[in-house]
Amino acid sequence: MAPGRSRLRGRVQDRPALTNSFCRTDPDIARRFATVTFMSDNRADLSRVPVRSLILQCSDDVIAPVEVGKYVHENVPGSELVLMRATGHCPNLSAPEETISAIKKFL
Question: What confidence score (pLDDT) does residue 34 get?
């Protein structure tokens, strides 16, 4: 799952470290995380987000496709959606400069 999460294009040297970090995760913690992540449905909560929100959406994310980012944006009042060139699910790893730039612009 690690390579799919980050899609570290151009940063192949980082893939083994990321993969190893996922593999070292305590199985009980990983199971609980997966249960909460994949079995929770918080769509009804989106309209109650009380603060300005930045939604960073990667262009090719196997976990959360562009449609998910658009849905969140449409349902969070006052949100700003940034469609990034970055790929994967962890733009802070695959495209840190683009991520930092989007956050600074939002702030």
Answer: 83
Please report where in the chains the tokens 């006052």 appear, as a residue: 78
Q: For tokens 């495209």, name the residue.
A: 95
List CB contacts of 17: < 8 A, sequence separation 6 or more: none
In sequence order, the 6+-apart residues with CB closer than 8 A to the CB of 43 are: 71, 75
Please give the DSSP secondary-structure letter assigned to residue 17: H
Dist CA 64 CA 59 (whole Å): 10
User: Mean pLDDT, to the nearest integer, of 58-82?
Assistant: 96
- b/e code 41-68 from CB counts within 10 Å (16+ = b): eeeeebeeeeeebebbbbbebeeeeeee
Give how far the C-alpha of residue 20 lies from the chain's centroid of Cα atoms, to the nearest Å.
19
